[in-house]
Amino acid sequence: MRPFELTAPASVEAALAEPGTFLAGGTTLVDLMKLNVITPHHVLDINELPLRGIDTADGLRIGALERMGDVAGHPGVYPVISRALLASASQQLRNMASIGGNLLQRTRCTYFRDVATPCNKREPGSGCPAIAGANRMHAVLGTSEHCVATHASDLAVALVALDAEVGLTGAAGNRTVKLADFYRLPGDTPAVENDLRPGELITEVVVPRLAWAARSTYVKVRDRQSYEFALCSAAVALDIQDSRIADARVAVGGVATVPWRLPGVEAALRDAPVTLASFEDAASVAAEGARPLSANGFKISLLKRTIVRALHELTDGSR
């Protein structure tokens, strides 16, 4: 880790006035600093800023500095969010990591984290060795010839499924962006991962009221049961009326370069009977446009099976 200056601004205004890299829980940033992937000269500890609170009066508002563990355990949080958070990390990390930091965490691609190898995210134009290299964990959706790294956040998948927005503040003022629009596909600029402008902070996450999201879940498939990133995950919420699906929300992770909403699957589920056959029919369109690599073609079938499993769990094992 290279030397850096650390300050702790006392207000949001003071934080925005100082150039530097923001530090909240540090569970991602500090790791990347130790690896010299990120080498900031000035780090701003923002933990004392008034960006906390969980409000369920009208939908759900979560302050960006709320800890993952506290949000997961809050009684007003939709099950899909709570389960995504609980599946994200160990208890120790959940007690430290912030909601805003979780949404901004960087990919776990081994080439990105190894400064001895090329990586277009880390050094634009240097290349993407994962395309022809070790790519079992990499994306099959939303990829480009410049990057195939998966997005790491479980929470972001659940929030995208629920049409969440993020509140942002910066020198130009406040703005709100849908989380699905906040993340950017790699295209030919994989180093630009989101719509966060220089000096901006995430201040809160806003989830619109959705009464039927009480019937929701998050299924995460991984190589080991704990402290592991997803091979595939599915965030699903269902509105069931008279044994038919009136509406559905489906997003997936572990298979795409950004949290991946599946409107085609949602459309196929609407007005369908609550049966395993309906679930399998809907999931059959989940991988449209997928581009598997040499070692991750299994993610195509795994994606479909993960969605069916999540739907099955929500409907008490429908036949």
Automatic annotation (TrEMBL):
PROSITE patterns found in the cross-reference section: FAD_PCMH
Record Pfam families: CO_deh_flav_C (PF03450), FAD_binding_5 (PF00941)
Protein keywords: Oxidoreductase
Superkingdom: Bacteria
Segments traversing the membrane: none
Gene3D superfamilies per UniProt: 3.30.465.10, CO dehydrogenase flavoprotein, C-terminal domain, Uridine Diphospho-n-acetylenolpyruvylglucosamine Reductase, domain 2
Keyword Endoplasmic reticulum attached: no
Domain FAD-binding PCMH-type: 1-212
Gene Ontology MF: a single term: FAD binding
InterPro entries for the chain: CO_DH_flav_C, CO_DH_flav_C_dom_sf, Diverse_Substr_Oxidored, FAD-bd_PCMH, FAD-bd_PCMH-like_sf, FAD-bd_PCMH_sub1, FAD-bd_PCMH_sub2, Mopterin_DH_FAD-bd
Protein name: Xanthine dehydrogenase family protein subunit M
